[in-house]
Amino acid sequence: MSKLHPVIERVTDRVIERSRPGRRAYLELMEIEGERHRDRNTALPCSNLAHGFAAAGEDAESIATRRGPNIGIISAYNDTISAHQPYGAYPPQMKIYAREVGATAQVAGATPAMCDGVTQGADGMELSLFSRDVIALAASVGLSHAMYDSVAMLGICDKIVPGLLIGGLRYGWLPTIFIPSGPMPSGIANKEKQKVRQLYAEGKATRAELLESESKSYHSPGTCTFYGTANSNQMMMEMMGLHMPGAAFVTPDSGLRKQLTRAAVHRLAAITRDGDDYRPLAHCVDEKAIINAAIGLLATGGSTNHAIHIPAFARAAGVQIDWGDIAEMSKVVPLLCRVYPNGSGDVNHFHAAGGMGFVIRELLDAGLAHRDIMTVGGGDLSAYAQEPWLDGEKVAWRDVGPSGDAEMLRPASEPFQSEGGMRLVEGNLGRACFKTSAVQPERWTIEAPCRVFDDQAQVAKAFAAGELDKDVIVVVRFQGPRANGMPELHKLTPPLGVLQDRGYKVALVTDGRMSGASGKVPAAIHVSPEALGDSGGNWGPLAYLRDGDIVRLSAEDGTLSTTADLSSRQPAAAPKPAQGMGRELFGMFRANADEAEKGGSAMLAMAGL
């Protein structure tokens, strides 16, 4: 068994020490609440209990007499989002699986599930980040019925898994398993998709041609196949031991997917407080599990959104982790994967090449991940260094073997990069994240005059007019949580990519998000403090930048700075909050949100977590 790398050990010890008061308070609360709700038959008056099983049909008597464990299902089902469409069939199946082991299952509640792919560049994207808070609140409402002995979380996509995890952690005395539905089969080649997008941005492809290309890429039920936030979520659940081992990237409607779901339900019946293998979520998600999530992000070149989500769900468990911790680990965690947009193949190719079982085995063998965490699958993280397969009609696990594609997946001894896929950049413009895994090293440092914009539309207009055909750092400000909900700015990627392909030195600096789909253009994202600043009137440095100021962005030396004297200026006027599409209803979230490095959450800030 490999010894833990000293840097990983040092960062873990620091996070544990920093989190000690909050973690102690959290675990004490979970212990008290767990005791209060140990037996629903005594915790709930008869009238309340009767309401809870009135519609349970053949399961009513078992729930009433507490004959076996009752599993609460929190579902993010809708049939607009391809990743969540398969969940419509899950609850009836799960009830059958539960009865097989003397348990019952009920749908405890539903949560919203919005797709950033649908809302990219549209007004609805300004609700996206705060939908995570809404999802956490909705999950909490569902579990507040206090009818359950364990929890099945049905969710995959961007804000949904972090939101479900935050909500679930406040019911941390309950064992909880996340059950994915898997990625859709692969469509057209990713390079072809990217080519058509850039041609459209240049006016060389029609909208009909673009839509035909996109439809060939996103074509069936299941998660989008690029390695964005949704699939990075699944990676993290594996690294934290919150899935059945290897469940992340098995396609919908396959026999193996069905048996993994069945195994998860059986496991939820076995790990309750009344059994002999109690595995509450509060103890599964500890400092080491959260460190593992960050390590997985670095080793796989995962979504930059998780630089916001990891600190947020960590806070819900009483743990404090920041970008400095992640950046320090990035110096020693090698990049083992090149999955689109960081490479040519998608997550189906990644899974076929060895997938998460390979990645976890390599990290454990190199001493780069915590083996000794409590997992829902049983034992420690070693169980996740395998791959699932069908042994007859039952799921079994086996050794992964060597990588099936060295262009996509490499051992820790021969990585694509010796360091991880994300770096911290900081200076007199604030602190930000730079995703290095998708950017060629010769582009890691850009120093150029900036053009300052207040939204994506202004950038598109300047690009179309030829105003950006030069070496330039594009600054898009007033895109933070407090300004407009921190939308993703993914639609900037094609035009900036075109400029880069024309031979210009180009970079993006923004207090907004780019997502796991961010590509080859160097970008400092999530700039904190955001331009709008805080409620005390302290504006962020981006508010003082002007066109032509020289900006330096370097992932090599960790710099985000300007030579301009910002102290002599007044801040730019912030755009008024937009209305329509329900954005006005989210005013309280914007007003109370904290900075991106803490998770960009209004709910956690207002709760004092």
UniProtKB/TrEMBL annotation:
Q: Which family does it belong to?
A: Belongs to the IlvD/Edd family.
Q: Which Gene3D superfamilies match?
A: IlvD/EDD C-terminal domain-like
Gene behind this protein: edd_1
Q: Give the CC-aspect GO terms.
A: cytosol
Give one Pfam hit by family name: ILV_EDD_C
| Keywords from the named record | 4Fe-4S, Carbohydrate metabolism, Gluconate utilization, Iron, Iron-sulfur, Lyase, Metal-binding
EC number(s) stated in the UniProt entry for this protein: 4.2.1.12
GO term, biological process aspect, one:
D-gluconate metabolic process
Which residue intervals define the domain Dihydroxy-acid/6-phosphogluconate dehydratase C-terminal in the entry?
Answer: 408-599
Ranges where the Dihydroxy-acid/6-phosphogluconate dehydratase N-terminal domain occurs: 69-381
GO MF, one annotated term:
phosphogluconate dehydratase activity
Organism, scientific name: Croceibacterium atlanticum
Protein's name in the database: Phosphogluconate dehydratase
Could you say which enzyme class this protein belongs to? lyase
Please give the superkingdom of this protein's source. Bacteria
